[in-house]
Automatic annotation (TrEMBL):
Enzyme type, top EC level: transferase
Presence of the UniProt keyword Transmembrane in the record: no
The name this protein goes by in its record: Glucose-1-phosphate adenylyltransferase
HAMAP family registered for this protein in UniProt: GlgC
Gene: glgC
UniProt lineage: Bacteria, Pseudomonadati, Pseudomonadota, Betaproteobacteria, Burkholderiales
Nucleotidyl transferase domain sequence ranges: 18-285
Reaction equations catalysed: alpha-D-glucose 1-phosphate + ATP + H(+) = ADP-alpha-D-glucose + diphosphate
GO molecular function: ATP binding; glucose-1-phosphate adenylyltransferase activity
């Protein structure tokens, strides 16, 4: 990168503001989002999903951030207040919390992602930013937004959409873009049955990552037009982006240009929106060289965590007790059982003889004596009684808990109370 290009890339984030859309229900995560919005769901032993988008902003030099919340936001707001209040207002750095508050007409809560931004337009305008970076707060990935911002400005586009290459057979779950040779978007379709292929790659499609960069004035004009359209769903993917594509003012930005490469050799992006995907992404972290390397401090992921003592392992002279292999074990954990290929969040306790294999245990979970788990996700604060076995009898698991078609069992307090 030339010196002038590098200087521009480093300077542009100061002229931008990021808006993290964090109001989603996350219904595909089933009972895991009964009490919390999807961006507030725990991930990776000590983080929340939203920490990845916020950390990407920090590492990219974008330190003016608004987080738009709506659905069951208490857990998320508490996390942001405790973990993201370190920015310096005197340096024009902040994380503003923007819950739904009927700012415009005192009648409507946020009716869609575009309406959520529109209802905060006066606050956004007060930031004085030239560019607005709109981010989904419910994906796990590392990305340098400054590179995407530089591409956006260099292209002269009014809008740039972050995109990732996916097999065409899997693309029906995404918003899919068709592009020309210059990466100008020529079509945008939400969850198409027949996704358009990439030029020269008939088996590959370009899926939207839910990441958009707009020139501020253009965005405000389009939001005003959208809110006046009674037939609109007031959503970026369904309404704003397709209209901009028809006007010919949208460029695509491939994730391969700005994704942070980890030890796996490729940039990492995951939608952990189902129980199976959530379990899989967490368990992937337990391998020796995961594609998402949380130990790579060149692009750190920041979060809030309580001040806890180190994890402790108690063997008491018994074989296979007080051990953990190929696992992530967080602070405050006390392990008197056996842990294998699992992720233990803060303050998890395993009593003597308890076993957790290929399982994800959220904070303050306690396994009683001789509990056995295999391919299980245990929600925060669950206490499993002595001798309980989950993950060995599919029919019994499905009767008592929530079991996916791929054999992952989700356990919550309410399910345990019914035993």
């Amino acid at each position: 990168m030339a010196a002038n290009d590098l200087a521009r890339t480093l300077e542009l984030p100061k002229r931008a503001v990021a808006l993290v859309l964090a109001g989603g229900r996350g219904t595909r995560l089933k009972q895991l989002t009964d009490r919390r919005a999807k961006p507030a769901v725990y991930f990776g032993g000590k983080f929340r999903i939203i920490d990845f988008a916020l950390s990407n902003c920090m590492n990219s030099g974008i330190r003016r951030i608004g987080v738009i919340t709506q659905y069951k936001s208490h857990s998320l707001l508490r996390h942001l207040q405790r973990g993201w209040a370190f920015l310096k207002a005197e340096m024009h750095e902040f994380v503003d919390l923007l819950p739904a508050q009927q700012r415009i007409d005192e009648e409507n809560w946020y009716r869609g992602t575009a309406d959520a931004v529109y209802q905060n337009e006066d606050i956004i305008d007060s930031y004085g930013a030239e560019y607005v970076v709109v981010l989904a707060g419910d994906h796990v990935y590392r990305m340098n937004y400054a590179v995407m911002l530089a591409d956006h400005v260099a292209s002269g586009a009014e809008c740039t959409v972050g995109c990732i290459e996916v097999p065409r057979a899997d693309a029906s779950a995404f918003g899919v873009m068709a592009v020309d040779a210059s990466w100008r978007v020529t079509d945008f379709v939400e969850k198409p049955k027949d996704p358009p292929p990439m030029p020269g790659q008939p088996q590959t499609a370009l899926a939207s990552m839910g990441i958009y960069i707009f020139n501020r004035d253009y965005l405000f004009r389009e939001l005003a037009r959208d809110v006046a359209d009674a037939g609109s769903s007031h959503d970026f993917g369904h309404d704003i982006i397709p209209r901009a594509v028809r006007e010919g003012v949208v460029m695509a930005h491939p994730f391969s240009r700005s994704g942070v490469v980890g030890s796996g050799g490729e940039p990492y992006w995951r939608d952990v929106g189902t129980i199976d995907a959530y379990w899989d992404a967490n368990i992937d972290l337990t391998v020796a060289r995961p594609q998402l390397d949380l130990y790579d401090q060149r692009w750190p992921i920041l979060t809030f965590q309580p001040q806890l003592p180190p994890a402790k392992f108690i063997g008491e002279g018994r074989p296979n007790c007080g051990s953990a292999t190929d696992s992530l074990v967080s602070g405050g954990c006390i392990v008197a059982g056996r842990v294998t290929r699992s992720v233990l969040f803060s303050s998890v306790h395993l009593d003597t003889g308890a076993q957790a294999e290929r399982s994800v245990l959220l904070p303050y979970v306690r396994l009683g004596r001789d509990v056995r788990l295999n391919r299980v996700v245990i929600d925060r604060g669950c206490v499993l009684p002595e001798g309980l076995v989950i993950g060995e009898d599919p029919a019994e698991d499905a009767r008592r808990f929530y079991r996916t078609d791929q054999g992952i069992t989700l356990v919550t307090k309410e399910m345990l109370a019914r035993l």
